[in-house]
Design a protein that fits this description.
heterodimer; A: alpha+beta; 3 domains; 4-stranded antiparallel beta sheet; about 35% strand; B: about 400 residues; two-stranded antiparallel sheet; 4 strands
Amino acid sequence: MNPEARTRRSVLSTLAAAAGLAGLAAQSGILVRSCVPNVNYDKPSTVKVGLPESFADGLTFLPEHRLFIVRDSKVFRAVSAVCTHLGCTVHADIQQVSDATGSDTRPHSQVQQFACPCHGSRYRADGTNLSGPAPRPLAAYRLWLSPDDGRLVVDMMDEVDRRFVLTLP
Amino acid sequence: MSRRRFWSIRPASAGEATDAVVANLLLHWFPARMRTTSLAWTPSFWLGSVAAVLFVLLLISGLPLMVFYIPSTREAYQSIKDIEHVMSFGWWVRAAHRIAAHLMIIVVSLHLARVFLTGAYRNAGRREQHREWNWVIGVAMLMGTVLLSFTGYLLPWDQLAFWAVTVSMNIVASMPLAGPAVRDMLIGGREVGQTALMRFYLLHIVVVPIAMAVLFAYHMWRVRKDGGLARGDAADDAPEVLAAIPAAVRRVAVVTLGVWLLVTVLAIMIPSPLLEAANPQATPNPAKAPWYFLWLQEIVTDTTVRIGSVVINGAFLGGVVLPAGLLALLTLWPWLDRSPAATVGVTLPRERRAQVLVFVAIAVVIIALTAVGLLRGPSWHFYWPWQEWAAAPSRF
């Protein structure tokens, strides 16, 4: 602005316009912020899933937690059933192994794969991604025994390395 | 008596026809005179007007649905069942609403194709024209149409709804930095539930319809400011005009009644589907998007790429980057088009052959991906339409 033209009136008009814009911006921010909830009613992420002996050897699916508990006698793992691509629930494909030699004497003679119904991702039995759009292995979660009642506890916010296991004495 | 009351839509003279535009609030929508090229059935096929009629039918048919619909994850599904089976003519109102929405997606897409193929987003007149901005408004309205359909099919809170929200919100969250915050804002938390349904309901019945109405009004105002249907400069010298009243009124009436009739009949013939109630514990197999999103579902299936040890999730590449790039290209096309002004409003001119080929190629890819998506069956395997789907694999 030309300094000669700067009158008291023009300065006050500019200030008033700036104050108006600032107020508008602040109130827009308030309206946007007001839409962000301050209380979270999501289910807790740490859950007690049951006594260790209640799980059979092999795979148990807990639909309410979208979680697999994998048991191999005294060794337990918690594997997420949430596809790492876009979050649908994977299902276990049970395939019978036709092993004519009978050399495979492991307790479960089935090869399990996980398959996602939304975009066709497939995972190996250990949770690593095999084919399809899944970018990462299925998440593994920390699990431990609750000291008060001996039940298995899984924290679904605490992602751990795939090799993490809980070994019971 | 009736002659005096309805003189404006049945003018006896050219003078009365001109006065009618001023005398009648509804008729002042029209200019006094319109070019015969603007009034002709081709090349516009009146697709924009068809879309506008569909929008109005959607607003009207949505009201009775709102009377009975309850936006609660516990009651939404049951309230849709009530609309379908208990409410008088509810099945028909719901079907009309659904059919009109499907038709609107088709018609708006065809309208975009027509405007592109005739180069009607460019200016050729002598007066101040901004057709390129009207193209941008149109692209925004296409997004609005898609968003209305998306938020609409979430409301029944059936399996389709729940898993569509889950997948789409994970696409949003796959954006680096802001993604998770935007997702939390859209669904009001980390889990898809009541807060998500309420937010999408508000988007569906308030936010997007009002935005669409404002954009539509501006779109029509711009068409009129820009001189009606786009055409080459040569046509401007001695335009052939007709009094808009009754010529335009008659055509709008024909379009309105035709679309209304089509929606009425289709709504009687085609029942509206409703899947099982939303079950966060089990994803249906296969979990397929509605037909107009199948190409996007196919893209996110196929675009997870591995470069060395770096993996880019198809959710981000196919769900965000590619669609955003396509949208940016579409929006900016009027400024990329450098063909001569004489081609404005001309269908498939020689000078725009390369552009038309690019447009057709993209359209063919989208249609092909949709066809591929239609062939997907359980576990995302391919099935021909005449093949029976395998029983879904046993969970345990």
